[in-house]
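Researcher: Please predict.
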Amino acid sequence: MKNANLLVSQKNEVFDLIKTAGLNIFNFEWSNIRSNRSVDEMGNPTTVDRLDYLDSNFYFIFDFLKRQHYCEYSPGKEVSVEMQYPRSWQLQIGQFKNWLGFLQREINQPDMWKDLSTHEVSHINGISEIETSNVQFTFAEVKLIDKGLIEIKNYLEDKFKNQEEKLIIIEESISYVKEAVQRQGRKDWIHTCIGTLFSLASRINISKEQMEIVWITLKNTINGVINFLNP
């Protein structure tokens, strides 16, 4: 299999661009892969250079098509994988510079959905330890929980006053949770409550500090119900 690798001078140019971008050169690793585009005179696939960003799925492939520069990389500008046919090395290295920008954008972004999921699991685990049965709430428990939900609602409405759309979302979400407590068992309701509050947080862009206050209020409400049952 014939090699279609970059020149040493070209790899050095790649090195300089990574350093100029402020990225750690030790986080990148070269490998040779079989090309899906380039073939030799006998029609056999050639090997080309691939540069990986370690501990991720991000990469840049320096490929060829019809003896001209071609590339595939991830992440792209607006897609996870992008392919370009710049033809010349000058335009190819321009694509690489673009990729470095896309790469920095992604690696510097917190994965909010992952954080949200982790945060949710920790709160579910913490609250689920309090009550494991799925029996219906009593009338007195419903009243106690309503009081806690109203406290959460009032707190959020104060933080988002004069923001009509967000106030509507708060009203709808808390009303849904209040209605659910009257028909669901306690374990089912806890999960409904947590899921609804996380959805609410995402829709109105609650800060981490504000969300902590919501959780403290919720846990105090749940603890109050348990204390009410077991004086």
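Model: The first helix runs from residue 8 to 20.
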